[in-house]
Design a protein that fits this description.
Blueprint: H1 3-15, H2 19-41, H3 44-61, H4 72-92, H5 111-129, H6 133-143, H7 149-156, H8 160-182
Helix pairs in contact: 1-2, 2-3, 2-4, 3-4, 5-8, 6-8, 7-8
Length: 185
């Protein structure tokens, strides 16, 4: 069974209330989500907090997942991206404050989790390198930097619908590439 099928199965089970499948889903996807959040928020404690929010959203919204509309990982990345953008917007509306407990150690990922994340990042970088440069940059800016579709379209000098099509097609190509690099041959 490939990652796509596992994630889709877990989401169906989560929608039915399976805590065990939610735990498996979390273990399989938390590194990806955390990496995106770190990249977008650039603040580890805040990324950890939003990580929890993302998976609470998954728990409450799993029943809304429609496999005919999106790949399960694309759906999760969209939830992650939206949560990070929400946090960035909230951050802009509040003053920066010092941490309450600066001496408290963080919950850094284990060496195994770091190795898995590094492998996923390496595979993602490889798959992104297979896209045309402008489309790869649009994907990075949208899903790792939090740019809106309108900002990307304006910067690239293309209509909004064209930018959405670029991103949708690029994500499909990335998914196929990532699935190929994880499936045993």
């Amino acid at each position: 069974m490939n990652r796509h099928d596992e994630n889709a199965g877990w989401l169906n089970a989560i929608a039915a209330g399976s805590r065990d499948d939610f735990a498996r889903y979390y273990r399989a996807n938390s590194n990806l989500v955390f990496g995106i959040l770190l990249r977008m928020l650039r603040d580890r404690p805040e990324a950890e907090e939003v990580l929890q929010e993302v998976f609470v959203r998954v728990w409450t919204r799993a029943g809304r997942y429609d496999p005919t509309l999106a790949n399960p990982q694309t759906w999760l990345v969209a939830i992650t991206r939206n949560a990070a953008i929400d946090r960035l917007r909230a951050r802009q509306s509040r003053p920066l404050t010092a941490p309450l407990c600066p001496d408290m150690p963080g919950s850094a990922p284990s060496p195994e989790a770091q190795a898995v994340a590094a492998d996923q990042r390496s595979r993602l970088d490889h798959c992104l390198s297979l896209l045309e440069n402008d489309k790869a940059q649009a994907v990075r800016d949208a899903y790792l930097e939090g740019w809106s579709y309108e900002e990307l379209a304006s910067r690239s000098g293309v209509p909004l619908n064209t930018m959405k099509t670029w991103l949708r097609r690029s994500l499909h190509r990335l998914r196929r590439c990532m699935d190929q690099s994880t499936d045993p041959q």
